[in-house]
Design goal:
Elements (H helix, E strand, L loop, with lengths): L15 H13 L29 E5 L9 E5 L20 H7 L34 E4 L5 H11 L3 E6 L25 H6 L3 E5 L5 H12 L3 E4 L5 H4 L4 H7 L4 E4 L16 H8 L1 H4 L15 H23 L4 E3 L2 H6 L3 H10 L16 E5 L6 E5 L3 H10 L14 H6 L1 H12 L4 H10 L3 E4 L3 H6 L1 H5 L3 E6 L3 E6 L23 H8 L4 H9 L14
Parallel strand pairs: 3-4, 3-6, 4-5, 6-7, 7-8
Antiparallel strand pairs: 1-2, 9-10, 10-11, 12-13
Helix pairs in contact: 3-10
Length: about 550
Amino acid sequence: MRNGGPGSVISPIAGWSTLWKKSRERSCSDSNIPCPAKSRSPARPSACRKSNPASAVFRSSVNTTNSSTARKWASPAAIWPASGPPESYDDGPNPTLSLLLTSHLLLLTSYPLPPSSFLPDGAGLGGAMYRLPLHGIRVLDLTMAWAGPYATRLLADMGAEVIKIESIDNWDVLRALTGQPPDTERVWDKSPYFNQTNRNKYGCSLDLSKPRGRELFLCLAAQSDVVIENFRAEVMDNLNLGYDMLCGVNDRLIMLSMPGHGKSGPERDFVTYGTNVEQLAGLCHLTGYEGGPPHKTGISYGDPIAGISAAGAIALALWARRRTGRGQYIELAQRENLISLIGEVVVAFSLNHREPSRRGNRHSSMAPHGCYLCSGEDEWITIACENDAQFAALCSALDQPGLARDIRFADVVSRYRNQDELDEIVAAWTAGRTKEDAAESLQSAGLSAMPVLSVPEVFADQHLRYRGFFEPVSHPIAGGWEIDGPHWRMSESPAHIRLPAPTFSEHNRYVFGELLGLSDDEIGQLDADGITGSAPNRAVHD
């Protein structure tokens, strides 16, 4: 067996070569389907590179703008430790850190990728695919819950063929969050959480803990572009499906892992959910009212943020592969990813060693800045005032222009020091108005003021309806509903919801028959052996 070192050879797996040959024959039998110019040999020497050990979470830096006043400070390190090559290339400038962090998926629109050799135009169960930025990219999605599936949802929205892989004993926990009686028919296919996060994807079942399931997964990896997983740090290596093994069958493969605490360090084996990563990242300690306890955000904030970063990292790795011809391994520790969002607090503490305090809805440099009760039940408006000109406009809107000359509120510093009195004045004005009327009045005066909308109000919002933000979805089991559409609006690559979320094992015949070339009898035997299945083992999450 493979020892994991660079250049070592993977020994042939029983039945692997046969499966490979059958899948190649199947994919090239149609004259309309172009064969790859160069096959990916299943037993060739590996050119794998071991991933660099994750660097320290914080790196020392020095401000050299003024050498006489230079001060050392610490900032969050790169959130995507990767195994990619460090050298530069002659075909274009290397992206700056700012570009890396802000471009994300949109970077690909400037560097269009060719269609995958394994996915010709119009292929797939959804019919002819749109020419989206990730058209032709195949992603094997082993992720569960929210962080990983949100990443692959973004990739699927942008045209990637995402194949979500579950097993009958290890299925996505979101399927259990249905809000329906447990005896409901196919209740696991009716979860709004799962169906919202997994649209535009295909789905199959495959038990990777069994030798046959592992062989089939390697066959899929050989003809895919990306593998993404968010298991605990040791799981993929324990399955003998780590990056060294996968790139042994496909050296162009990109693999992204999303462990909670990284693949190294004393906390590498800790179980992490979005509900607790906020605490370890310091976010909860910053959230709450002055003098009160820490608060969790209203959602598991670390999950979608990690998903966005993961999708961006994969897109950049695809872009790098287009230049180098090689895949790479990406490690995204979810805790470190979330810490990067409070980088200014980390920098401030490293400079002055003062612990930041919780301040509720208030701002460090704006006053008034808060959420104010309006007329009606649980109706609120948010108001932010940035400078003296805006404060003068606010005073006029409140029919109290003299407040702008009041010594207590004469400048930003004075207003900040007297926020309690200022908040009482603003709150007295908003209490006599609806949140819509108050927002319209203040917006007309050039102020940043918005009503706080409930979920039903967001769903009925005229602006969102005008822009077609919500799109209809028809699911074969869960029925029809509306859901938020793709978040990017590209003039040359319009994206829409093409497929509902997959029912459990819905696309087994496509994955194992069309892609791997198995016969109906062979696919049936997989079910009989418990390697695949048409329904999950409900006892796992009951």
